Amino acid sequence: MKFSISMSAAVLAAVASNTLWIPGAHASPDSGKTVSLAALVNRSLQANPDVLAAQSAVDAAKARLGGTALPLHNPALEAEVESAGANTYQLGISQTIDWHDKRSAFEQLAQTEHQAVRQQLAALKLAKSTELLDAIGRIASQTGIKDLSQRRTQIMTRFANLAKQRHAAGDIPQAELELARLSLAESKMQLAGNQAELIQAHGDFFSLSGQMLTEKISLPANLKLHLVAAEDIESIARQHPEVQAAL
Fold this sequence. Notes:
Oligomer: single chain
Order of helices and strands: HEEHHEEHHHH
Strand order of the largest sheet: 1-2
Structural class: mainly alpha
CATH topology: Outer membrane efflux proteins (OEP)
Shape: elongated
Number of domains: 1
């Protein structure tokens, strides 16, 4: 499903305002603690290498902007000694004048660069936040699917064992026993596929955050999404970091 840039920002804000239940590894559901998705995403963004690189670019641009406040040309100290019968000493200071106001031009350029990298950082954080939320959602859903698949495999294992016993007793034919074994094999294959998808989701989260989400998570059943009026969508879109970075 694809969203416009204004709708994706609204969905992200709605998701971030909700909470996430994370119980401890050996805790019961009643002892779980509730944390906000925004806190989890922000903590993950702080360790994301792409975000760290973009933040370094912002810091460098800020330093260059601060440097433009310094004089373009520093005063120069000049000394001259003349010896013609009597020693003559001269000491002076020369200062180059910025007639064309180059410093203001450099400052304006640095401000533009600083604003651009800040917008690029904001756009990158929004994109990475969306990827993190997607990974968290897939971890939660795939964990539930894997648990159901494990229960199904356990049931099919008992069913296959029962079919084996009944076949040994002569209650069912060989065909029914093979059918039970085939159903068990299919269940095991499906469980392996679900486990692989869960591992992939964990890997995506780790590549984004640099940490493993080992706790069990439970996402909120409903999201409080406050849609804006149609006439406000254009103004919201103009404030989107990707739009600002392109200006």
